[in-house]
Design brief:
InterPro entries: Class-I_Pyr_Nuc-Dis_Oxidored, FAD/NAD-bd_sf, FAD/NAD-binding_dom, FAD/NAD-linked_Rdtase_dimer_sf, Lipoamide_DH, Pyr_nuc-diS_OxRdtase, Pyr_nucl-diS_OxRdtase_dimer, Pyr_OxRdtase_I_AS. One of its GO terms (molecular function) is dihydrolipoyl dehydrogenase (NADH) activity. By secondary structure, the protein is an alpha/beta fold. The protein is globular. Helix 1 runs parallel beside helix 9 (319-333), helix 3 packs antiparallel against helix 4 and helix 3 (47-66) runs parallel beside helix 6. Strand 10, helix 7 and strand 11 (228-230) form a beta-alpha-beta unit. The chain has helices spanning 13-24, 40-45, 47-66, 81-105, 161-164, 181-192, 212-224, 280-283, 319-333, 362-367, 383-387, 416-428, 433-437, 448-456, and strands at 3-9, 29-33, 109-112, 115-119, 122-125, 128-137, 141-143, 158-159, 173-177, 196-200, 228-230, 233-241, 244-251, 257-262, 264-267, 271-273, 306-308, 347-349, 354-359, 372-378, 394-400, 406-413. Strands 1, 2, 3, 4, 5, 6 and 17 form a seven-stranded mixed β-sheet that branches. The protein has a five-stranded parallel β-sheet with strand order 8-15-9-10-11. A five-stranded antiparallel β-sheet has the order 18-19-22-21-20, with helices on both faces. Helix content is 32%, strand content 25%. Bound molecules: flavin-adenine dinucleotide. Flavin-adenine dinucleotide binds at residues 9-15, 32-35, 40-42, 46-47, 50, 114-115, 138-141, 161, 182, 274, 277-278, 310-312, 317-320, 322, 350.
Amino acid sequence: MSTYDLIVIGAGPGGYVCAIRAAQLGLKVACVEGRETLGGTCLNVGCIPSKALLHASHMLHETHENFEKMGLMGAKPKVDWGKMQGYKAETVGGNTKGIEFLFKKNKIDWLKGWASIEAPGKVKVGDTTHETKNIVIATGSEPASLKGVEVDNDAGIVVDSTGALSLPKIPKSMVVIGAGVIGLELGSAYARLGAEVTVVEFLDAITPGMDGEVQKQFQRILAKQGLKFVLGAAVSGVEVEKGKAEVKYKLRKDDSEHEIKAECVLVATGRRPYVAGLGLDKVGVALTDRGFVQIDDHWQTSVKGIYAIGDAVPGPMLAHKAEDEGMAVAEVIAGKHGHVNYDVIPGVIYTTPEVASVGLTEEAAKESGRKIKVGKFPFMGNARAKALFQAEGFVKMIADAETDRVLGCHIIGPNAGEMIHEVCVAMEFGASAQDIALTCHAHPTCSEAVREAALACGDGAIHA
Ligand SMILES: Cc1cc2nc3c(=O)[nH]c(=O)nc-3n(C[C@H](O)[C@H](O)[C@H](O)COP(=O)(O)OP(=O)(O)OC[C@H]3O[C@@H](n4cnc5c(N)ncnc54)[C@H](O)[C@@H]3O)c2cc1C
């Protein structure tokens, strides 16, 4: 048994990044992970496998819908589901092995097993109690359950996101409960693979919290791709009979009761923090009323020397938010000044087209009483997007009416998830819309649409 400077519990993007940064800063570090592989939800059953399926299904869509338009003739490919699952597994495996390599390179001990905290400075894994000066809880989250709905990932009929990534076959029909990011990404992937997908959502709009105009355009585009939407509907239960599921729901506007049958039901009603088995009540680590680990401005819990980050603490449940917190808390523990700017955390939906946003929505900016300018530019005016058959979206920039400072940006369009970062950098530097508008952007790129939206905050876009 050795004494560590830091034991990180959980090797997701929060935990493994924290461990690496702490080791780089000269600390003696161990990371406990109960899963067989490193990388957490993100690498094993989240970001990475879902993006592999989204990419493969997007490629299929391109061959079926757009190849002939470009003069690319030939037999249309069929899906070999086993091989597609193999591609997904290989992508995941390559990435999880990569973290193992980084642990070795940075001399981080991987303590294999499930950890509990015996006391501040004492972490038990299996039968061994390890001593450490600091502990970081990075145990992540798990899919939230829904009353009246029993998930059975092995049966593959009523599944959560983990089950949906490894279905035994592509279902002919699928009901997605919840029109959030995960439901829409996986729903759109299966729709492109041939499933008839219906999304049932409690609220009256998809992707709650997103800019209203983006929500509407996004729904329109997904509907054109074949997804059906039932909004304002409260699911009361799911019954499984003879290998088929029946989803019962009530429309909130008139209390009328309905049902839909499907081969597969994906429950995507959000995620909740996972801290089971850690023994937090025993050591006195306080939780919020929603079950997140309560932290102060330096990610310290209510117990000195025990910190928490990532999905286990309040804030957006995103891998890059967890990573930033991981780096920052490692710096705090090493005696430096860790910092996360929570106002500039991008959010991306990896559908086709992608949806990306950062900062304030128009609604939130107005609600805060700020005077704002809105610059909008449609991808119809962008030559590159038209060549990609992805000209349906737009870039919308929000700037302060008096100072011109960029307050937010919302993009629905090709590679939006890559384009958003120039706005993130601009916001970190406190840039104005004019700063972006005066920056030369290469032609022909989709990023020119960002510049045009910035121009639209001033004297006007050129190509609109
Ligand atoms: C389908 C899906 C798609 C997603 N796509 C994206 C995306 O595109 N972009 C994005 O930013 N986010 C995405 N997310 C969210 C992202 O995966 C999470 O925000 C991120 O993984 C959180 O990181 P974390 O380090 O806090 O926790 P996690 O990644 O959940 O890792 C926590 C780890 O801790 C381990 N653990 C828990 N308790 C213990 C214990 N007691 N002892 C030892 N180990 C323990 C767990 O086994 C787990 O491996 C997606 C999520 C899902 C489900």
